[in-house]
């Protein structure tokens, strides 16, 4: 296992573990490494100082590590709370989002809170039709690292 300090295109900094350097390169090359703060997939390795051990007398006291499961930034904590609220108060409809939203807007199905995925052209068409939609600031559940 290897831990990398990472930085996204928006200059958010975070850390993540990978099976190997090649595993990071393969995942990043396929756009599967996402920023922990904004979800952006344009992620690169940041400069990171190696941890080198000396003698016991030279060794500095260990810095308490923050578990990677804990938010590193208040924005990340807010995004996690938003995601939890969304998952408990609405229905995930996946790739059927455009059809479901349009049917509710036209009165063909019962109004209910939904979230899902839409291609850019589908989202644009919904907006042009006056369907109230909003992009979410995080990736769908099946596209998370």
What does this structure look like?
With 145 residues, the protein is an alpha+beta fold. Among the domains are: 48 residues; 47 residues, no CATH class. The protein is 30% helix and 16% strand. It is built from four helices and five strands; from the N terminus they run E-E-H-E-H-E-H-E-H. A three-stranded antiparallel β-sheet has the order 2-1-3. A hairpin with a 4-residue loop joins strand 1 and strand 2. The chain is elongated, with a radius of gyration of 20 Å. The model has no long low-confidence stretch (mean pLDDT 84).
Cα end-to-end separation: 16 Å
% residues in beta strands: 15-25%
Low-pLDDT parts are none
Multimer state: single chain
Kindly state the percentage of residues in helix.
25-40%
Instruction: Give the averaged pLDDT, no decimals.
Output: 84
Shape: elongated
Largest sheet: 3 strands, antiparallel
Class inferred from helices and paired strands: alpha+beta
Order of helices and strands: EEHEHEHEH
Strand order of the largest sheet: 2-1-3
Number of strands: 5
**What's the helix count?**
4
Rg computed from alpha carbons, rounded to a whole number of angstroms? 20 Å
């Amino acid at each position: 296992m290897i831990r990398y300090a990472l930085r996204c295109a928006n200059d958010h900094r975070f850390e993540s573990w990978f099976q190997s350097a090649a595993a990071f390169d393969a995942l990043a090359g396929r756009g599967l490494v996402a920023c922990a703060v904004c979800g952006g997939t344009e992620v690169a390795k940041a400069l990171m100082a190696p941890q080198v051990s000396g003698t016991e007398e030279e060794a500095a006291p260990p810095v308490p590590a923050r578990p990677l499961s804990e938010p590193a930034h208040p924005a990340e904590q807010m995004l996690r709370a938003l995601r939890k609220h969304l998952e408990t108060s609405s229905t995930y409809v996946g790739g059927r989002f455009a059809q479901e939203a349009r049917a509710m807007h036209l009165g063909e199905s019962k109004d209910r809170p939904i979230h899902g995925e839409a291609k850019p052209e589908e989202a644009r068409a919904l907006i042009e039709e006056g369907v109230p939609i909003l992009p979410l600031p995080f990736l769908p559940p099946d596209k998370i690292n």
